[in-house]
Design a protein that fits this description.
It contains no helices and eleven strands. It is mainly beta. Strands 2, 4, 5, 6, 9, 10 and 11 form a seven-stranded mixed sheet that branches. A four-stranded antiparallel sheet has the order 1-3-8-7, with no helix packed on it.
């Protein structure tokens, strides 16, 4: 079955960086679009970034220019490099593909 496991979250000061990791298994990773979402307390889950099997990537306006999504089809991983973090980036970050979700990893940005 599909399994997505996120890691790399933590506490960071505003302006800092974090790199999130998602390890995928149970499907042909290279063929699927991979996405990152996030959910802040009291807010709806929102899309952050996606990367196609070709490597083409897209970002929400709120993270464009600060976050970079990448994938390694040999390792079945998708990463999210987050730079210039802001307190409003505080959320649980989720890896997602084809209707399947990971358990999430907490990112907290202090001001």
């Amino acid at each position: 079955q599909v399994r997505l496991v996120e890691s790399g979250g933590g506490l960071v000061q505003a302006g800092g960086s974090l790199r999130l990791y998602c390890a995928a298994s149970g499907f042909t990773f290279s063929k699927f679009v991979m996405r990152w979402f996030r959910q802040a307390p009291g807010k709806e889950r929102e899309w952050v970034a996606l990367i196609k099997s070709s490597g083409s990537s897209y970002y929400s306006d709120s993270v464009k220019g600060r976050f970079t999504i990448s994938r390694d089809n040999a390792q079945n991983t998708v990463d999210l490099q987050m730079n210039s973090l802001k307190p409003e980036d505080t959320a649980v970050y989720y890896c997602q593909t084809d209707g399947n979700w990971g358990q999430g990893t907490q990112v907290t940005v202090s001001s």
